[in-house]
Design brief:
Elements lengths: L10 H24 L2 H4 L1 H16 L10 H18 L3 H10 L4 H29 L13 H16 L3 H18 L3
Helix pairs in contact: 1-4, 1-6, 3-8, 4-5, 4-6, 5-6
C-alpha cells in the first residue's frame, strides 16, 4: 500500500526517521538474536497499552517543539523495536501524532518507514542466518501473502472512512491491541 502513497511521501522529512532507524535496527536485531524474547517484549507491551489507554481518555497532544533530533530519536526507537520485535512503526506513529499532522500526512510518513525497516530487518536476519549455515527464507513463508493482502484491503477501506479524530482513536486502540499481543 506504500505504492499508493508515492505522491504524498516527503522523502526529505522521512530521512531523519530512516537515519535513526538505520542506527537502531542493528541494536534491535542483536536483542532479538541474543536475548530471550520474554526479557524485552514486556516493556514495549506495557508502554503501548499504557500510552494507548492514556491517549484514549485525554485530548490529543500536539507538541510545538518539532526539532529534527526528535525525528531521529523516534526512528532510532523504531529501528530497535523493528529489529527486536518486528514492530518498527510504534514510536514513529506516536511522534507523527504529536506533530498534529493529518491522517494522510502521518500515514505517508510512517508507512514507508515501516516498509523500509521491515525489509532491512528481514534481509539482515536472513543474511545472518545464511552466514551461520541456516536457511534464511522458507518458501512456505509466502503462504501468508494472501491473508496480508486481504487485511490490507480491509484496512484501506476502513481508513478511507475515518476522520482525523477517528483515525487517532483507531491508532490508539491498535497500540493497545499490539501491546497486549506482546504478552501472548
Amino acid at each position: 500500500m506504500v505504492c499508493s502513497l508515492r505522491r504524498e511521501i516527503r522523502w526529505r522529512e522521512l530521512a531523519p526517521f530512516l537515519i535513526g532507524g538505520a542506527f537502531g535496527l542493528p541494536v534491535g536485531i542483536t536483542i532479538l538474536l541474543k536475548l530471550d524474547r520474554h526479557v524485552y517484549t514486556h516493556v514495549p507491551g506495557v508502554f503501548l497499552v499504557a500510552y494507548g489507554c492514556y491517549m484514549l481518555v485525554r485530548k490529543p497532544l500536539v507538541t510545538r517543539r518539532k526539532h529534527v533530533a526528535f525525528d531521529i530519536l523516534a526512528g532510532l526507537l523504531g529501528g530497535i523495536t523493528g529489529g527486536a520485535a518486528g514492530f518498527p512503526g510504534a514510536f514513529v506513529t506516536i511522534w507523527c501524532g504529536f506533530k498534529g499532522w493529518s491522517k494522510e500526512r502521518q500515514r505517508a510518513m510512517f508507512r514507508p518507514f515501516i516498509l523500509i525497516m521491515q525489509v532491512a530487518a528481514l534481509a539482515t536476519i536472513s543474511l545472518l542466518r545464511h552466514s551461520a549455515g541456516k536457511v534464511g527464507f522458507e518458501p512456505a513463508d509466502l503462504l501468508c501473502i494472501p491473508a496480508a493482502l486481504l487485511g490490507t484491503a480491509v484496512g484501506m477501506t476502513l481508513y478511507r472512512r475515518l476522520s482525523d479524530s477517528h483515525f487517532a482513536r483507531a491508532v490508539n486502540l491498535l497500540m493497545i491491541a499490539s501491546g497486549i499481543s506482546y504478552f501472548a
